[in-house]
Write a structure and sequence with these properties.
By secondary structure, the chain is an alpha+beta fold. It has helices spanning about 20, 25-35, 155-160, 160-170, 185-195, 200-205, 205-210, 255-260, 320-340, 355-370; strands spanning about 40-45, 50-55, 65-70, 75-80, 100, 105, 115, 135-140, 145, 175-185, 215-220, 225-230, 265-275, 275-280, 285-295, 300-305. The protein folds into two domains: about 1-35 and about 165-373, Naphthalene 1,2-dioxygenase Alpha Subunit, Chain A, domain 1, CATH 3.90.380.10; about 40-150, Rieske Iron-sulfur Protein (3-layer Sandwich). Helices cover about 20% and strands about 25% of the residues. The structure holds FE2/S2 (inorganic) cluster (FES) and fe (ii) ion.
């Protein structure tokens, strides 16, 4: 069994070996070792019924779950009947108990077994095994997460980012769009491209015009990383809202600092929650990307758009997400072809621009290695 190793010192480290992406065995192993052990996106702000069926990470985990909001607080449980295994709730609905449509077993909204016809005389029945299994579940500003077997509590994954969600949701977030992109590349190649702004000047010409590449930062946390892009001072997001004019007041910080308005200076914050969730915070709201592996060479990326201020939708770094996505897909698909080369096995990192990718590879190695987790 391979042990992946990423040197913690980025200056010494080599990137993940290409066999991680090309060998189908690692793809299969990652389902249980990475995806079952991390927090997955279960639902967004649109959760409104008492009972909502959710398939956790379709195609990878394929776990039928049920989010129940019985007495006001939401919980998550198995959506599979403990009798013979029928899926219990197929469509979101309002109800005050759950009754299996196969042989009539009933559960309360917390998943506790209530009754079963024709079971008189059955020994040791009912037992705890007849209740629906509870699944670790967490909510943040209307977004719901579940994990089948979490390596760490949700708190450790969301950590310092709560305020980011809270301020984005302060005036309400409404889901306005959902679309899927099919990318001909390994899921990790898609993620690691997202995790660095290094390629922006080379790949995203238009995006590069509205963000300030010089001040782009990447911060890493235990299971997440955050990239912050400030708006290009000469292309403010909201010129009509109190931006000082060029050349006014030659402050000590230089003209750039004079021009930047503290209320509008963040063009985008890109939050990555390991291994496959991207929350992109723009002045207009949040774009959520859920990366769903399909095969070692195919990935579906779900784009969910949650808007708080429609008037800002076509401004700044969050204006042309489709165009940026097309540019990203082209390079990621090119890397997918390149990593199969006999002449490529791994590369090195830029210590100033690829901290997010290095951090991601370190976590992959940590989760994949036989003795960890
Ligand atoms: S499978 Fe649910 S009652 Fe039989
Ligand atoms: Fe990109």
């Amino acid at each position: 069994m391979t042990n992946f190793f990423i040197d913690p010192d980025i200056r010494k480290a080599h990137t993940l070996p290409s066999k991680f992406y090309t060998d189908p065995a690692f793809f299969e192993i990652s389902k249980e070792k990475i995806f079952a052990r991390t927090w997955q996106f279960a639902a967004g702000t649109e959760l409104s019924s008492t009972l909502t069926p959710v398939t956790l990470l379709p195609g990878v985990l394929d776990e039928p779950l049920l989010v129940s909001r019985g007495d006001g607080h939401a919980r998550c449980m198995s959506n599979v009947c403990t009798h013979r295994g029928k899926v219990l709730v197929e469509n979101a609905c309002d109800a005050n108990l759950i009754r299996c449509g196969y042989h009539g077993r009933r559960f309360d909204l917390d998943g506790k077994f209530l009754s079963m016809p024709e079971f008189e005389g059955v020994e040791n029945f009912p037992s705890a095994d007849d209740d629906l299994k509870q699944v670790p579940f967490a909510q943040q500003s209307g977004f719901c997460f579940a994990s089948l077997d979490p390596a760490a509590p949700f708190e450790n994954f969301i950590q310092a980012h709560r305020t980011l969600f809270e301020s984005a949701a302060v005036s309400g977030l409404e889901r306005t769009a959902r679309r899927e992109y099919e990318v001909n590349a390994h899921w990790a190649l898609y993620c690691e491209n997202y995790l660095e702004g290094f390629h922006i000047p080379f790949v995203h010409k238009s995006l590069n015009e509205v963000i300030d590449y010089g001040t782009y930062t990447t911060e890493t946390f235990r299971y997440s990383s955050l990239q912050t892009a400030l708006s290009e001072p000469l292309a403010p997001l909201l010129p009509e809202q109190g931006w000082p004019k060029a050349g006014v007041e030659g402050a000590a910080g230089g003209q750039k600092d004079v021009l930047r308005n503290s209320a509008n200076d963040v063009a985008a914050r890109y939050l990555f929650i390991f291994p496959n969730l991207m929350f992109n915070f723009y002045p207009w709201g949040v774009s959520v990307n859920v990366v769903r592996p399909v095969s070692p060479s195919k990935t579906i990326v779900e784009f969910l758009t949650y808007v708080s201020d429609e008037s800002l939708l076509d401004k700044g770094a969050g204006a042309d997400l489709h165009g940026v996505e097309m540019e990203d897909e082209a390079v990621v698909e090119s890397v997918q072809k390149g990593i199969r080369s006999r002449f490529y096995s791994h590369g090195r990192y830029s210590p100033t621009r690829e901290q997010g990718t290095h951090h991601f590879h370190t976590l992959i190695a940590e989760f994949m290695n036989p003795l960890s987790h």
